[in-house]
Amino acid sequence: MKLKKNIALSDTGFVFDPSTGNSFTVNPIGLEIIGYLKEGRNAEEIKREITARYETDGPGFEKDLADFVNMLQKLKLTDGNGKATD
């Protein structure tokens, strides 16, 4: 799954899509996930990073990540038909 290249992201969690003019805010974990997606990391790499840094279990985080990615897709912030498992 790839995030659109033109998505602007601030250190405070402000997300801006210049192609639509829409803006959103995300919490610190969402900000971190979006940062990893912008770097081109896949779901497994993101899961490893987050579960190593925070007290969370793998299966629980996988569901949360899939939900977050689905939200990004609905907001049209992703390129193509990417899935959380890409």
Q: Give the count of structural domains.
A: 1
* Biggest sheet, spatial arrangement of strands: 2-3-4
The succession of helices and strands, N to C, reads EEEEHHHE
From the spread of the alpha carbons, the general shape counts as globular
Largest sheet: 3 strands, antiparallel
**Rounded radius of gyration (Å):** 12 Å
Report the total helices. Answer: 3
Mean pLDDT: 88
Proportion of residues in extended strands = 15-25%
Question: Low-confidence stretches at least 5 residues in length (pLDDT < 50)?
Answer: 81-86
Quick summary:
The protein is an alpha+beta fold. The protein is built from three helices and five strands.
Overall description:
This protein is α+β, with helices and mostly antiparallel strands and 86 residues long. The protein has one domain. The protein is 45% helix and 16% strand. The chain has helices at 28-38, 43-53, 58-74, and strands spanning 2-3, 8-9, 14-17, 22-25, 78-79. The strands form 2 sheets. Strands 2-3-4 form a 3-stranded antiparallel β-sheet, with helices on one face. Strands 1-5 form a two-stranded antiparallel sheet. A hairpin with a 4-residue loop joins strand 3 (14-17) and strand 4. Helix 2 (43-53) crosses helix 3. The protein starts with a strand and ends in a 7-residue tail after the last strand.
Topology (SSEs and partners):
Layout: E1 2-3, E2 8-9, E3 14-17, E4 22-25, H1 28-38, H2 43-53, H3 58-74, E5 78-79
Helix pairs in contact: 2-3
Characteristic key phrases:
45% helix; 86 residues; 3-stranded antiparallel β-sheet; two-stranded antiparallel ribbon; alpha+beta
